[in-house]
Amino acid sequence: MGKFSEGLLDEEKIIKELNILTGHSILDAGCGDGYMAKIFSKLVGKQGKVYALDPDKNSIVTLNGELDGNSNITAFVGDITQNTNLEDSSLDLIYLSTVFHIFSKEQVQLFDKEAKRILKRNGKLAIVNIGKEETPFGPPLEMRSSPEELINKLTFTPKGLISVAEYFYMQLFINE
Ligand SMILES: C[S@@+](CC[C@H](N)C(=O)[O-])C[C@H]1O[C@@H](n2cnc3c(N)ncnc32)[C@H](O)[C@@H]1O
Question: Has this prediction a pTM greater than 0.90?
Answer without folding.
Answer: yes
